[in-house]
Amino acid sequence: MARPYGLLRAGFPYLKSLGMRRLTNYPVDLTLGAEGRIYILNRQQDLAQIRKYSFDDEDLGNFGTVGDGEDELQWPVSIIADSEENLFISDESHHRISSFDKEGEFLGTFGEYGSGEGQLNRPAGIVFDADENIYVVDSKNHRVQKFTKDGKFLLEWGSHGDGDGEFDLPWGITVDELGDVYVADWRNDRVQKFTTDGEFVMKFGKSGSANGEFNRPTDVAVDLDGDIYVCDRGNNRVQLFNAEARYVDKFIGDATLSKIGREYMMTNASPNRIRDMAVLEPQKRLRQPRSIAVDSDMRLYITDTGSYRIQVYQKEAIHLNSQQFAPPMRSVTLHQE
Amino acid sequence: MSDNGNGTKNGSKKPPVLVVLQMTGGNDFMNTLVPFTEGIYYDSRHTVRIDEDRVIPINDKLGFHPAAAPLKEMYDKGDVAIIQGIGYENANRSHFRAMDIMHTAEPLTISTKGWLAQAIQQLDPNGKNVLTGVSFGRGLPRAMAAPGVRVTSVGDLDSYGLMTSVEIKEDRAEAMDIFKRFYTPGIGSGATMSYLKQTGDDVLTGIDRLQEVPGRYESTIEYEDNPIAKSLRDVARTHIAGLGTRIFYVQHAGYDHHAIEMPAHERLLGELSGALRDFMDDLREHDAAEEVIIYAFTEFGRRVQDNGSGTDHGSGGGAFVIGERVEGGLYAEYPSLDPKTFANGEDLAHTFDFRGVYATLLEQWMSVESQDIVKGNYEQLHPFKTA
Amino acid sequence: MSTKAVEAKTDPALLAHLYRRAGFGINRDEIDQLATEDYSDTVEFLLNPTAETGIPEDELKRYLGGEAPHAYLAIWLYRMLNSRNQLQEKMALFWHGLFATGLVKNEHILSSSNQIEMFRENGMGEMREILMDLAKDPAMIFWLDNNENHLGEPNENWGRELLELFSLGVGNYSEIDIKHASRAFTGWTFAQSPPLYPHGYYPADFLFREDDHDNGDKEFLGHTGNLDGGDIIDIIVKQPSCAAFISRHLYNFFVADEPQVPTWNDLPPLDPELIDAMCKAFMDSDGEIKSVLRVMFNSDSFKNARFKKVKSPIEMVAGILKLAGEHTDFRHDLAKYPQSSTFTMGQILLDPPTVEGWHTGREWIDGGNLTERINFAVDQVGDGLSPGIKRIIDRLVESGSLSTPESFVDTTLDAMGPISVEDSTREALVDYARKTEVDDDRSRAVRMIRLMVSTPDFQYA
Fold it and tell me: For residues C57 and C63, what is the distance between their CA atoms, to the nearest angstrom?
């Protein structure tokens, strides 16, 4: 599917929230399966859990135990699913990638602590490319490594610094439908784009809180229109850029009570009274959002980590052809037709 | 004192022993002793409930959770007194505060004096035996702590000791020899240093005596492999060894079931009641049962209404007194299920003050004055057989 | 390195003492560097925290955190172990003990952790500001029921403890003063934050409710008028009894174990001269805590008060962890120490046993606690490859001091602090050194360090 010639951005309304405290406890990442399944990765002190969840806010069970065993997790960061819905999870304490099938059966791990080829030091973001090779952000080694799905090393790029193609504790990563790679270059407060093989293409963003600026961005996602979403955790927001990295819009949170949250409140008298005494505006907002995902229905999922939920937005954009969308202009204009 | 002067309730010459078992997290009393004829129970509990055909009835209104079958057997033998609706005015729903209240018998002020520690002080006023009070499990519960009271806290009886991380046995023995010299009472500068050395010496005495316990124990009873069974087995072994312990404390954690309560609660009740049965059988095998009772309690009951997956903090809990000298049966009233009587409009209202239960245990079983400990006179129960 | 050429100006043992008290310890190599400077300059460095904390704040938020109390405590412990502003962290602990606020009641970790952050921010500032911040702190307001202190229906809990436990001490005010002070704080409350479910903790913010405030005349310690909470605090911090009370608390925390606080009205301070000098610094500086600390740390009394305090559990745990040197990077197991190790030793941070805080000195020690302290310390120092232990062993081996039992013991004591022990302890250690002479140097050294941390002497800071 080719990218549209132009876009009429009709809106990007808030759709719904999923989850609540205790069910989706400190969600740090999620990945989407078939039939509306959502795998939510929860990380807390003494908790490392994958919760299977539905888009209708139903709990479908969970697995994952915290610990130092081979099949256990300690500090999980990112979760991705392959075409069979096997789940791959990076663990920045164990310095490895662990995999489970969708019922939670442990499959294996790859990676070990170190800075050599194929070794990892605090692996963070992970992503599959179209061939199901896996890119791993090897954060404390300030590089990206590419592996086959069973952990065979393919290539690497990057070193410590703030020049083009250099990183400072990078975190999230994504691959767009053309195969280009985007990395949230965390401490450099920017996003960098590379070709499939790690050749530098472009970068955008700088430190700050104005539009288009970042405070420790943690994740990046790209939709089928080529729009780029950046999870700007330190500024408690997600920013939207077009494919040329021009700032377009931002999401600061518009949450309503999830279905499960409503059910909970219906059986609890005192929280209802307390809620009635409180100012509620802050409850809508994102708190330390950690990761983002977009699906093929153009829905944006934000793991609203600090508020124990997922906020979902629906993109409404109409594809325009060359008759509907004028050629690029040389300059800005005040002239209205 | 309610008892006659020279005898004890257990009818033997052996001094009475109290084992306190804490069910941490707030046990769901309604799902432990189920009011299976009450429509309001099933109306309030859509998912977190025991259907009537699964209940093990003890009369035409109440029955045990099916996982508590071993407890039901003990009940049928007449060894279990169920104290229904235990609590106090304005029950606190915070775990920590509620547990604190249970530990200190002080619902209104924050206290540092545990009710059992004060009993230990009466039983052994000069602190002659560091094993008069022994707690098994992590950390010393506040119930067992009070300024100036010496009790022993044992994480794991089989590995109890000092310098336990020193793996090579000879190394440890050599180090312990030197260690004993460090902690020789009587030498050292200043009152605090003397106290410190005395304390170290006490620890060594306790360790010497407790370390012999596992080696001296033999039993045909095979406990299950879970934490409460392990703790109760440690109690049995220590009691059988005859080290003069009068009060034991054990903890069974995990009762805070806000979510996915059904399988978790079933597991816990199964573990607990199985462990209690094995414990009593073990004591009987060693002719050491008569002088022992167990008091099992929790910090609060849970909400009448379930939340779809679990239950939230409530009040109106229940407790159990178990032993051969116990007059089995139901004590106090089951909390009313009439919504008009609910505390805060949503919780079971208590029917019996927990301080009256403490007074019962302290006075009638341990022959210890209770008024200073529970701060007053509370109505007592009479759950013991008359000798 | 030019350290050899530079004359040592300060006794290493004194610097180790300063860092055990004004911080959570320091490793021996850093002491060698500090020894080339004047002692008073090191005190000034500690009194004036800089932005160069040595803590990567962004990474702290990235790897640690969460809503569990011990998740926050892991962050605090990380600061105790790694911050260059050691006194700043120690002062946060001091105020936490003095203004003891317990999670047991509020169960609102965000408010409790914000309170600790407040103590860190301004722990060496002026007493007036410290008390004003405290009076407006939601965790404290709720802990002492000032949210229930209403116009016409005063609740005296905060008013009483402010005077009795936080500023003046028993005997320096009357019951009338309590009543009037309480009225002055009516309406000092906080705005309701949303409930914990379904979306977690939200901060509570101070709120002054004019409509619930008593604007009538009050009498407080000889002052009259329509006094409000700020006026009450102004009057308090000008009282000599406030200077004396705070000075004695600082002395008890930093210098030597005093008897428990409730006896202070009957028993004079251990060192009246130093307390007088600290009071003078307090009064002369309008109650600036930094000025009081400066006098205290530079006094001979302080310098000579080595091993006169029983370590609190957190001092024991942080000191040992620093000695072993494993936690300079972020590790998932950091939380278990404040959650479980100090807990079994009798101290749950963020959850003091009562509003009086922790009893100190010998009350830290009972059979169970002592067992835990010793087993913890022995366990933590048992790995000869952990960076801190390796440093100590390298020092021993390089100095050739393992040749005689006496020099082995003395050099180990030096490398671990320097610390010192009583003669009877040293004799036992020397005998041990003699017994292990056949073993290889490195394992001998580990075994010696393990034994040293199990001594009664090591229970003291």
Answer: 10
Q: What range does the domain containing B235 cover?
A: 17-157+224-374
Percent of chain C exceeding pLDDT 70 equals: 99
> In chain A, which residues have pLDDT < 50?
none
Which range marks the domain in which residue C19 is found? 12-47
Indicate the number of domains in chain C. Answer: 3
Q: Output the pTM of the full model.
A: 0.88
The alpha-carbon gap from B315 to the nearest alpha carbon of chain A, in Å, equals 14
Residues C28 and C76 in one domain: no
Query: Is C197–A265 a contact, with Cβ atoms under 8 angstroms apart?
Result: yes
Q: Say whether residue A54 is in contact with chain B using an 8 A CB cutoff.
A: no
Tell me, yes or no, whether B2 lies in a domain.
no
The count of domains in chain B is 1
Task: Give yes or no: residues C30 and C74 share one domain.
Answer: no
Please compute Rg for chain A using Cα positions.
Answer: 20
Chain C hits for A74, Cβ within 8 Å: 332
The alpha-carbon gap from A305 to the nearest alpha carbon of chain C, in Å, equals: 10
Condensed to tens digits (0 to 9), the pLDDT of residues C271-303 reads 999 999 999 999 999 999 999 999 999 999 999
For residue C55, which of C26, C89, C31 has the smallest C-alpha distance? C89
Alpha-carbon distance of C2 to C36, in angstroms, equals: 10
Q: Three-class SS of residue C20? A: helix
Final residue of a structural domain among C304, C329, C361: C304
Give the residue on C whose Cα is nearest the Cα of B161.
C371
Residues of B in contact with A269 (CB under 8 A): 344-346
Note whether B329 contacts A: Cβ–Cβ < 8 A. Answer: no
Residue B196 lies in a domain: no
Which residue of C lies nearest to B170 if distances are taken between CA atoms? Answer: C436
Please check whether residue B172 is in contact with residue B127, taking contact to mean a CB–CB distance below 8 angstroms.
no
C-alpha C432, offset from chain centre: 34
Asked if C81 and C227 sit in the same domain, the reply is yes
DSSP code for B308: S
Q: What is the C-alpha separation between C11 and C24, in angstroms, rounded?
A: 19
User: Can you read off the two tokens belonging to residue C86?
Assistant: 């050691």
Here the CATH number for the domain that contains residue B79 is: 3.40.720.10
Contact (CB<8Å) A267/B303: yes
- C174 & C119 share domain: yes
Distance from CA of B213 to the nearest CA of A (A): 33
A263 to chain C: nearest residue by CA?
Answer: C198
pLDDT band, residue C5 (cuts 50/70/90): very low
Q: Do C194 and A20 touch (CB under 8 A)?
A: no
Contact residues on chain C for B92, CB-CB shorter than 8 A: none
